[in-house]
Amino acid sequence: MPLHAPEPESRTRLAEILGDGTSNADLGENLAKILARACTVLDVDTATVLRHESRWQRLVAVAAAGLEEEVYQGVQVPVGEGFAGEVAASREPVVIDRVDKTTVINALLSERGLHTMLGVPMLAGTELVGVLHVGSVRERRFSTTDIETVRLLAERLAAVLQAETMHQNQAATIALQRSLLPGILPAVEGLRLAARYVPGAEAGLGGDWYDVFRLPGNQTGIVMGDVSGHGLEAAVIMGRLRSALRAYALDCDDPAEVLAKLDRKANHFEHGVMATVAYGVLRPGHTSMALSLAGHLPPVVASPGKPAELVPAPPDPPVGLTVGATLDRRTTTVDLPPGAVAAFYTDGLVERRDRLVDTGMDQLAGLVRPEDPERACARIMAAMVGSRPPQDDVALVVLQRTAGAETH
């Protein structure tokens, strides 16, 4: 439909539908009230809002008037299929004057006795937020004013739904990530540990994570990972990968084998997901660390009397990148004399718009030295992040082997 200035009558009808604004009720209740008024003003029998779930390319009913069963029964419509799916795929208003199995895939619409329907895409800029459709049990013709009114309503509701979804996702992401990141690092005899995590200011919370856990045989596992993407979806995937890695770590002593299992899991169950992971296992006594990298940046190790260096471990492909391929992932052994420090990190620490990742890694290597991990974390964050909020998520774990650890 060509864009044009809304008719005064459409604006007046929209104002009637929206009323005095929303109450303190939740989004679903507010939408239901607005849709009920829409039925009255537009002289239709039903009105439904379906939210677009982009990852699965489907529409899910979230609010309705006159057809509340769509919400109660969790109606889902694939994009491109049926009436609402056609509206979503075309991103244009669609009118049908026959409601049966040839025009809709949601049986509730025909069971309700609907005869004529009008559907309009809910757009926020270029983003498809959902579909708004109205229906009548009698034969009728939707006028240009009707269509324009529904389009304006869809535009308003798209903005409301998008804002509420973003707010809910951010809150859920924060809660999920806080529950998955270690609140307190484990107490390991012969080892000092410290960590930092700061969410990025621009992209929102994402899939960065770190983990430290005790393993059988007096070993300790250390993980630093970064799932591609941001928001709730990345955090959920991060949680699944974290749990899977922990489970594999109980069965495998070799970090490369653990990451190979994680890779197979991601390729089979997490299609389209990619994550970089560094996984190290401190051997009994912490005299050495076995390390495998799945596309992740190498840790920095500093031993007493020696300059700090990036661990020369081969960067095998990220988890989930090579679908259907079998990789021979590799493990590197790193010596850790008493007093040695190792720093694991994500790319948000070393990469910024004004700093290339290689430059940042060199800068980090110049900062790591044998010292207390808490002091090291504070000094590294001050130098690398400073007084500006990081653009991307930053995760940092510093460990130090203490003297005498080899006796335990």
TrEMBL record:
GO terms for molecular function: phosphatase activity. Residues 188-401 form the PPM-type phosphatase domain. Residues 26-171 form the GAF domain. SMART domains: GAF, PP2C_SIG. Keywords: Hydrolase. SUPFAM superfamilies: GAF domain-like, PP2C-like. InterPro entries: Bact_Sigma-Reg (IPR052016), GAF (IPR003018), GAF-like_dom_sf (IPR029016), PPM-type-like_dom_sf (IPR036457), PPM-type_phosphatase-like_dom (IPR001932). Gene3D superfamilies: 3.30.450.40, PPM-type phosphatase domain. This is Serine phosphatase RsbU (Regulator of sigma subunit).
